[in-house]
Each structure stands twice: as structure tokens, then as C-alpha cells.
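Section handout 9: paired folding examples.
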Amino acid sequence: MLADYLGVTTSELLGEAPGSSSSGIRVPVLGTIPAGIPLDAIEDILDWEEIPAAWATGGRQYFGLRVRGDSMYPRYLDGDTVILKKETTCESGDDCAVLVNGSEATLKQVMIKGDGSLELRPTNPAYPPRTYSPAEIESIPVQIIGVVVELRRKIK
């Protein structure tokens, strides 16, 4: 299909107003998320990404974040966009957006330990993992805000 080849939607190719197509919905890319040391969370809408409409059934919510940094290299590169399902829990081993201290966001693999602690694990061995005890999870707090469901990477 020509639209696919050009990397645009059929609506854009036909000059129609931007928005959701019949097969997809648009979700906001809310800012950047460090794949490194946690930095202040940013909630500016940088862009919009389209996801399949079927994903949003049952009230499920999604958002995008732009990756910044290299702690999750080689899985995620600086400038990648990740699509996340809005969640407050995850499975051990999921890649998640995690909010630390209410304002610092980071993208890490979350490992759930038997004692209830969370280890935020980078995939880049140059960065150490960080473990939070159950008491720290409550007092700091440490909150999962989304689980990565898709990676989008521009070639050029």
C-alpha cells in the first residue's frame, strides 16, 4: 500500500484531518523518559502515535514516551518511542515506566523479589541495578505507571 510505503496514514495521504482512523486510535507521547538515572518526569505532549483500536477495549489506556539515555541499551536506543499500557502493577521481568519520589521517572526492567522488594534493572551493564525494599516502595514512594507493550524506532 502506498501509505505504508511512505510511512503515513491513508488519511494523511488523502489530505484528511489528523485523528483516529477506523482501525486505530491516537495516543499521546507524553514526553521523554530517562533510560538512565531517574530525572524529573515530564508530561508535555511531544507527538501522537496510532495504536490498534482493539487494544483500548475494556477501558484500557495507553500512552507513549520517548526514550532518553542508554541504560536500557541495546534493547532501547536514545530517541526510541515506547508505547505503554497504563498499569500500576506488572509481572516480574516486564519493562516498565517507574515513578520514583512522585516526580522522577525511569524506564527499567522490573524484577519482583520474594520479599516484595523491586529491583529496577538496566540492560546496559555499565549501569547498576537499584533495589527498593517494601518499606522504601511505600515511603519514597516507588510506583509503576506503565508496562511497555511496543517499541517504535525510526531508521533515519
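Moving on to protein 2 of 2.
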Amino acid sequence: MLAGALVAALGYGSLHLIDASTPLAALLVPFLLIPTGMGFAVPAMTTAVLASVAPERAGIASAVLNTARQAGGAMGVATFGALAGGGGAAQVVDGLRIETAVSVALLITAALLATRVRPDAHRGASSTRQVVRS
């Protein structure tokens, strides 16, 4: 999770530096870093969430995680649309800068929180399992 959050933050940070005259090819780096970071973070988050609950609650935990991810994505798109919509290129860039600054702050916060996840923190859920033999 830590590596994913930092790689995505680097992508959003580099996207923060663009302006209305930035060549399209320059967007390749941030648009590769952001999904790469998410590709590292999401499986790690899923593993951490599923390992922290009892097996019979894995479906609920997975559903809550995916619902939160989808809702966060929808809110992010709506917020960017509200910040950048209705204006010219300068307003789009201004909205993008606000959005990328918020994204970097949230991802750095996520990275800091990821350092607090202990590998042994998830043993409690698995150690309470009962073996049922038929």
C-alpha cells in the first residue's frame, strides 16, 4: 500500500505541474504513474481488509471496500467537473491543480497510515477460526 500511494502521489504531483500549453506527450508520465500506483495499492488494500475479518465476513468486507472505492472515484470525478467545468483551458488547469494538490495530500496521508499497518495485526481474525469436521 505504501509504495502504491507514493507512486500515485508522484503521478498526481507531476500532473500538478502542467499548464494549458503542456504538450500532450508530457501527460504520459503522470498518466502511467497514477494507475501504476493504484495497481500496487488496491490489491494490498484488499488483502489487508480480507485478512482482518473472519472468513465468513469476507464478502461483506470486500463489498464495503469496493463500494468505498467506487464512491470515492465518483466523488472525485464530480468534484473535478465542478472545479473545471464551464470555463476555458485556464479554468480546467486551475481545477486540475486544486484536484491534484488534494490527491497528493490524501495519498501521502494514506502512505503514512499504511506505515501503521502491522503484519501481525491480522492474525486475530484467523486465529479465532473454529475447525468443523464432518
